[in-house]
Amino acid sequence: MQHGSANAKRRARVFAVAALLLTGLPLRAQSSTPAPPPPTAPAVHEVVDEAGRTVRVPLLPSRIVSLAPSLTETLYALGVQDRLVGDTDYCDYPPDAQKKRKVGGIVNPNLEEIAALHPDLVLVTKEINRLETVRALDALGIPAYATHARNVDDILSTTQKLADILGVPEAGKSLASDLQARLAALHARLEALPPSRVLFIVWTRPLISVGKNTFIADALRRADAASIVDASQDWPQMNLEEVVRLQPDYLVFAASHADSGARDFESLASLPSWQLLDAVRSHRFAVISDAVNRPAPRIVSAIEELARQLHPAAFQDAPEPEKPAAPTTVPPNPSPTAPAHVTLNSQPFAKELACAR
After folding, report:
1. Does the pTM of the predicted model rise above 0.90?
2. Where do the H-state alpha helices sit in the chain?
3. d(Cα 338, Cα 8) in Å, to the nearest integer?
4. 127 CB burial (10 A radius; 0-12, 13-18, 19+)
5. How many other C-beta atoms lie within 10 A of the C-beta of residue 291?
6. Which of 53, 158, 179, 307 has a C-alpha 20 to 30 A away from that of 139?
7. For residues 329 and 71, which has the higher predicted lDDT (pLDDT)?
8. How far apart are CA 316 and CA 307, in angstroms?
């Protein structure tokens, strides 16, 4: 009996150990399963912007804020407008851009509003946005890429660079190829013609034009127009007596609507001092889209418009191109102050310049 009792006790201990092992297996298996990895930050890479700064940007930016009308236009031209989550009070073209969340002015954007949109990239221009804005964005950990287009070729190359950064290189190549083809076709039509001497009027009182090193002056040259202004300043104030001495063939205005440009001309023509210009007495003026004021792809359309008005004989065999609908101007609120790099006697002009670009 004692032997049988001992065997029974041994069997009981074996069963107890087996039961313990069996119940412990799931616990050991569960505890050995590795924890899920933490979410990874989006992949980034370093790019050098057109101000010479090294910027870390996502491989595929998905939430973009634009701080210049020209950059907003470029995003739409590249077909990535769905990624644009905010822009400025002055971003009015195409009309859909007016529906985007507004982050304030160009020179004085609302940084809190920008941060609330959680952008992974902010686009700025070296020409009109302030360095202080870029530094403030850096402090917030928001990458800012700066563009700097000084002529028409730069505008096309900037468009391609933005396309590359945004992950749509083929859209950039297609757009740039189309614009280059149109400029080449225009050059072929105009190369045998003497250029028209023009005065491009940015502002009338005081009289402001464009300097020879601006992208607008380059756009004029592409339309076979030679500016009478030889100033190295970007936005020189002109003396009417000097304009009378130089006698331009045409006065050129940029306006959202042709009627407003015509009204500007008629207003000047009513002044006795302007009657001293042959172009005024002969009613020789051209009104083109205000796209010429913005370093964006649409500037090519403005160049074509001007060329047709200055040299109509060169286009007698060509159909009139369709003109895009003029954007509805959004009343600025609040009004920006003058860009730091612009030194002018006319504060209203400085505001107009900030709105235009």
Report:
1. no
2. 2-31, 69-77, 111-116, 131-139, 152-165, 169-190, 215-222, 240-246, 258-269, 278-281, 299-310, 347-356
3. 99
4. buried
5. 25
6. 158
7. 71
8. 12
